[in-house]
Write a structure and sequence with these properties.
Elements: E1 3-4, H1 8-17, E2 24-32, E3 36-37, E4 43-44, E5 52-59, E6 66-72, E7 76-80, E8 89-98, E9 101-108, H2 118-126, E10 131-136, E11 138-143
Antiparallel strand pairs: 1-11, 2-5, 2-8, 3-4, 5-6, 6-11, 7-10, 8-9, 9-10
């Protein structure tokens, strides 16, 4: 069952339940729209903001150890992964209402997985900060029973 986040109190309760996203993993996200090309090759496009995002996160704590966000009416999505050789642990995150839109942010720890070289430190310093920023008209969430390496949305071919 999806739990809507409508009020400041509901948002604060959610952030408390998920530990502010600390020590989490952005396991996967999927973006979709209601726009499509029909069999006759015409385009069907709704007259409203039709972009959705579903986000699957896991964390190193119970209750919930995994959860999903459903974001409707997405008007902005920016994702910057960590550099090769750096971890992708979510250090912190936030969810708030700004100008009648929900703003979700996730920030990565982004530390080197091995003792860093001077070159690696320079690359980290020069790179944009990794993380995710999303603006949406509404956000709902639900705890899920899915930890480990299994994916919820997509199953890529293994190399």
């Amino acid at each position: 069952m999806w739990l809507p986040l409508r009020s400041v109190e509901e948002i604060q309760s959610f952030l408390t339940a998920v530990g502010g996203f600390h020590d989490g993993a952005l396991r996967e996200f999927a973006v979709s729209t209601e726009t499509y090309v029909a069999a006759d090759l015409s385009t069907a496009c709704p007259d409203h903001l039709d972009t959705w995002a579903r986000i699957h996160l896991q964390r190193q704590y119970q209750d919930p150890a995994a959860f999903e966000l459903l974001c409707r009416g997405v008007s902005h999505l920016q994702f910057t992964p960590t550099l090769d050789g750096c971890n992708s642990i979510v250090f912190s995150g936030d969810l708030r209402v700004e100008d009648s839109a929900f703003r979700l942010t996730l920030e990565y720890l982004n530390s080197p997985m091995r003792p860093p070289t001077q070159e690696m430190l320079a690359r980290i310093a020069a790179a944009p900060p990794p993380g995710l920023t999303l603006l949406a008209q509404s956000i709902e969430w639900r705890p899920i029973e899915l930890t480990g390496d299994r994916l919820l949305y997509v199953a890529p071919q293994r190399r």
